[in-house]
TrEMBL record:
<dbReference type="InterPro" id="IPR001930">
    <property type="entry name" value="Peptidase_M1"/>
</dbReference>
<dbReference type="InterPro" id="IPR050344">
    <property type="entry name" value="Peptidase_M1_aminopeptidases"/>
</dbReference>
<keyword id="KW-0645">Protease</keyword>
<keyword id="KW-0479">Metal-binding</keyword>
<keyword id="KW-0378">Hydrolase</keyword>
<keyword id="KW-0862">Zinc</keyword>
<dbReference type="InterPro" id="IPR014782">
    <property type="entry name" value="Peptidase_M1_dom"/>
</dbReference>
<dbReference type="Pfam" id="PF01433">
    <property type="entry name" value="Peptidase_M1"/>
</dbReference>
<dbReference type="InterPro" id="IPR042097">
    <property type="entry name" value="Aminopeptidase_N-like_N_sf"/>
</dbReference>
<comment type="similarity">
    <text>Belongs to the peptidase M1 family.</text>
</comment>
<feature type="domain" description="Aminopeptidase N-like N-terminal">
    <location>
        <begin position="56"/>
        <end position="227"/>
    </location>
</feature>
<protein>
    <recommendedName>
        <fullName>Aminopeptidase N</fullName>
        <ecNumber>3.4.11.2</ecNumber>
    </recommendedName>
</protein>
<dbReference type="InterPro" id="IPR027268">
    <property type="entry name" value="Peptidase_M4/M1_CTD_sf"/>
</dbReference>
<keyword id="KW-0482">Metalloprotease</keyword>
<dbReference type="Pfam" id="PF17900">
    <property type="entry name" value="Peptidase_M1_N"/>
</dbReference>
<feature type="domain" description="Peptidase M1 membrane alanine aminopeptidase">
    <location>
        <begin position="315"/>
        <end position="456"/>
    </location>
</feature>
<dbReference type="InterPro" id="IPR045357">
    <property type="entry name" value="Aminopeptidase_N-like_N"/>
</dbReference>
């Protein structure tokens, strides 16, 4: 492995680049450390993400025809090598790659399952920023998650519902498909005139020519791949700016408009309330996409602009909006920690209800605790759901929220709120782990809380409360 670091770059680059790269790639164990890994090290999804580089920016240019369901794409990734790379992987499922360059030079590539294995003409040196351009095309479709739900590019009768948690991003663009690696994005989306293509962040502009409309979107703050969207449909669009200067863009399928209107309208007041509870809203843009996608069965907290498969109720809007702080801004480093997303977003629903004339969080907690030991709520502990099949199971949401309520009871309301805010602001647009959250809660409260978290997050079965 040391050999590459000893080789002078100019020698590698100028004299025998192809031979050296081939040699290193073929050298097996001797070349370890010069090829990127096929996964990010997530035990639930071993092939999700890759190692050896960090993506800084995705530039995605897509054209989609809902009639033929054909997608033509070009992805330009700007990445930094975290080790010398003779070879590295991207994640991409299905679709056909038609051309691939690294720093504008044609590179070798092959497909192996969801891995797109790239061999650049010359090794990319550690610390270097490099650019990968992938041209691809095909008929995208979703993957089926371990829990049976569709995930990724999900065609609808008038476009596509595009959601990627936990794995689906690789069904429509090549990338480093794990929340550990966040990046900024530019989207250039072309769809037939009359359809609207909605992505994350701010709309820079749109133009129609010869029957096609191109929408340009920019997501500046770092985003995990699963939170990217390019949802296409026949939408009614409403744009405005909140009192806090946040740009709001709502897109609503006319079939859902009547039910959606009274809920979607409350976004500014929900954002204000959550900003008071959790600290400043982490992004410059916001909004909602309400699609009509009866085959989906869930909503997703797509960054800046949650995506609903039908008109949401207010509690769901509160939940997806809370994810902007918990999950989108403060992101997972491992899917095992999913309760940091779902437990927090669920607890936000409880807090919202409590402060808006609904049930108290205590009543919510008590009702859940009264469920029999055989209930699905106690099927597994939320701190380690055990596999990808349980990521979105009841314990992750409800018992995750119960863990937070138990914390609140132990430390008191004021300290609890300080902990939530410190979590959201201290890890803003970054990452967090359960261990870090436990340490933060102990620091802010000056108490030993390991026992409490062990009980609520890691102990199988219904907790025995003394
Ligand atoms: N994170 C979404 C929520 O707000 C749920 C996503 C479910 N996705 C899935 N593939 N089952 O709760
Ligand atoms: Zn959620």
């Amino acid at each position: 492995a040391r050999r590459t670091t000893v080789l002078d770059r100019t020698v590698v680059g100028a004299i025998v680049p192809v031979a050296v790269a081939a040699l290193l790639a073929a050298a097996g164990p001797a070349a370890a450390g010069t090829t990127g890994g096929s996964g990010a090290g997530d035990p639930y999804f071993p092939l999700a993400g890759n190692s050896g580089y960090d993506v800084r920016h995705y530039g995605l240019t897509l054209r989609y025809d809902p009639g033929s369901r054909r997608l033509d794409g070009r992805a330009v990734l700007t990445a930094r090598a975290t080790r010398d790379l003779t070879r590295f992987d991207l994640d991409l499922r299905g679709l056909t790659v038609t051309a691939l360059t690294v720093d504008h030079v044609k590179a070798g590539f092959r497909r192996r399952g969801q891995e797109l294995v790239v061999t650049p003409r010359r090794p990319v040196h550690r610390g270097r920023t490099f650019r990968v351009t992938v041209a691809y095309a095909g008929t995208p479709g979703p993957v089926t998650d371990p829990d049976g739900s569709p995930d990724g590019w999900i065609p609808t009768d008038d476009g596509a519902f595009v959601a990627g948690e936990p794995q689906g991003a690789m069904t429509w663009f090549p990338g480093n498909n794990h929340p550990r690696d966040k990046a900024s994005y530019d989207f250039t989306l072309t769809v037939p005139e009359g359809r609207t293509a909605v992505a994350n962040g701010v709309l820079l502009g749109s133009r129609t020519a010869r029957g096609w409309t191109t929408f340009r979107w920019r997501q500046t703050e770092p985003m995990a791949t699963y939170l990217a969207t390019a949802t296409i449909g026949t939408f009614r669009v409403h744009r405005y700016t909140t009192r806090d200067g946040i740009t709001v863009y709502d897109a609503v399928d006319p079939r859902e408009a009547k039910a959606a209107a009274p809920v979607v309208r409350q976004l500014p007041s929900v954002l204000e309330w959550e900003s008071r509870m959790f600290g400043p809203y982490p992004f410059r843009a916001a909004g909602s996409v309400v699609d009509h996608a009866p085959n989906v069965g869930y909503a997703l907290e797509t960054q800046t602009r949650p995506l609903y498969d039908s008109a949401p109720d207010l509690s769901t809007l509160v939940h997806e909006t809370a994810h902007q702080w918990f999950g989108d801004s403060v992101s997972l480093t491992s899917w095992k920690d999913i309760w940091l997303n779902e437990g927090f977003a669920t607890y936000a629903e409880w807090l919202y209800a409590e402060q808006h004339g609904g049930r108290s969080a205590q009543a919510e907690f008590d009702a859940l605790l009264a469920r029999p030991a055989s209930d699905a709520l106690w099927e597994f502990p939320p701190g380690d759901p055990g596999s990808g099949a349980h990521l979105f199971g009841t314990p992750v949401y409800a018992r995750g929220a119960m863990a937070l309520h138990a914390l609140r009871r132990a430390v008191g309301d004021r300290t609890f709120r300080r902990i939530l805010r410190a979590w959201a602001t201290g890890h803003r647009t970054g990452h967090g782990t359960t261990a870090q959250f436990v340490r933060l809660a102990e620091r802010e409260s000056g108490r030993h809380l390991r026992g409490l978290f062990r009980t609520w997050l890691y102990t199988p079965g219904r907790p025995h409360l003394s």
